[in-house]
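Ticket #4471: structure export looks truncated?
Reporter: QA, pipeline team
Priority: medium

Steps to reproduce: submit the single chain below to the structure queue and open the exported record.
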Amino acid sequence: MNEKNIKRILLKLSGEALLGDQQFGVDPKVLVYLAKEIRSVANKGIEIGIVIGAGNIFRGEGLAESGIDRVTGDHMGMLGTIINALAIQDALERQGIVARVMSALKVNEVCEDYIRRRAIRHLEKGRVTIFAAGTGNPYFTTDSAASLRAVEIEADLLIKATRVNGVFSEDPMLSKKAKHYKKISYDDFITMGLKVMDTTSIVMCKENNLPVRVYDISVKDALLQIVEGNNIGTLIE
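Actual output as written to the record:
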């Protein structure tokens, strides 16, 4: 893949990315930082879709472990992603970027319903389009939602923002022996049971020949460097 020819990307952000130094909720300083990072890419003429998680508010799987019905917990998590999406939309607009939130759940008072053709039209008009509520179905992660939306909008690249610089053989925060991969195949990622993204998400990317770039969200200008063709983090293809 020639990343220098990128015209449209799907950026996957975790809810935890919005925490900053807080234990819960959204850190305004992080919102400003993310909005500026995204603006730098939008100003290059790159069309940007975003999928956001809700780990800073609710995790459906975690709620299920505490005794809440899994489907109910997942729906709570989907609603959490809408809260985060609205926060990102506001931050982007304060940076002068036109943004739209589209939800897989109907919440018409605060955002649009997700309609693929309308989403593509938003992107073509240069609007950053934020896809909330995951896939709209329980048992599917926001990673899977990111892969699905990326395929649907015909993105050239799925970019997964994490807290570490790409894909490692094991958690580098727990092991100094963790090996970093500059590039790894879909099959090797799946066979090795790596956890940066869930298997369903990677399988979908493989079946649709969608390359994935994993990078450290805290590195300033890294997102811009990726779309400019620099070898940042790890490429999965």
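Status: closed, not a bug. The export was complete when the record was re-opened. Leaving a note from the reviewer for reference: The two ends are 8 Å apart (CA to CA).
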